[in-house]
Amino acid sequence: MPVLLLTSATSLHDAVVPLCAAAGVEVQVCAEPDLALAAWGEVDLVLVGVDLAERVVALAPPRRPGVHVVGVAPGDTVFRAAVELGAVSVVDLPQGAEWLVDALADVGERASPGRTIGVVGGAGGAGATTLACALAQSYAARAPTLLVDADPLGPGLDRLLGMEDLPGVRWEGLGETAGRLGARALRESVPRRELLGVLTWSGLRRRLDVPTARRILPAAVRGHDLVVLDLARQGGPALTELVDRCDDLLVVTPSTVPGLAATARLVADLGRSGRAGLVVRPGGLSDADAEQVTGLPVVAAVADQRGLAASVDRGLGPLAGRGPLARAARDLLAAAA
User: Fold this and answer.
1) Are 152 and 21 contained in the same domain?
2) 3-state DSSP assignment of residue 41
3) What is d(CA 6, CA 51) in angstroms, rounded to the nearest whole number?
4) For the chain, how many structural domains are there in total?
5) Cα separation, 179 vs 312, whole angstroms
6) What is the reported pTM?
7) Residue 110 located in a structural domain
8) More confident residue, 29 or 274
9) Rounded CA separation 84/80 (Å)
10) Does residue 249 fall inside a structural domain?
11) Are 120 and 252 in contact (CB under 8 A)?
């Protein structure tokens, strides 16, 4: 059982067990603390009822994360017991029910977050969206992956992958919600094909809501091994904030004078250092030229791929079959790991 509830109070049992059911997690209820010590360190979350808090303190269980004291109108003695137990919080029910459901929603998820890779075009038409889709398709062959459409003027990533008819929540729906979002809830609600999920827009009028993105992205990285952000080149403050959340940033640019000039301006605006690199497309200039103009290292080169447009039009995505795009995606993911 992922959740352990220590209480002998019927009212507390009837308040917490339905919340666990709503969050989709199983709960073990125990009225005798000494009988529950064996499970104390094995479960993901421990909920100690206010009626048994002092008895649990007397047993001196080992300190562990994920302990919460729950009850109705907890008094000062309960807070002292919570401190001795090393509890994260004291949850006052029913006022704290929504917060508790959010905490329960992440039960069973990984302890450490996944990795976030941002992809942005240094110049218009560089192929950043295509590369973002290829990275997500490649990684989703082995682990849960989320592809996030952060470009309101883009074509819609679900269309590029042939997933536009799949049910699931889009940005508009998430913007209407409030509070903390559980990782599992997000993973199960977006349009998904096997291990690949996509978060994009449903309509023509699109605007990336920064507060919604701040609330959604932490849940995304908790619930997926990899999150790929397809970033808008002219995203303003929203672009800067999303870039700051990326573990790796890939700037896609054609190896041409206009392309590198535009890319250099973008890089200067972002002001990012660290794990950022260029993915160069065919052009008349060398990798050394690209590095000198932009100040970023070249981490991959992607040649034109025959049949790419036809593959996307058939709903197969850009990574159908073998080719330079598949090789680049594989190498970039290996380098990021």
Assistant:
1) no
2) coil
3) 9
4) 2
5) 37
6) 0.76
7) no
8) 29
9) 6
10) yes
11) yes
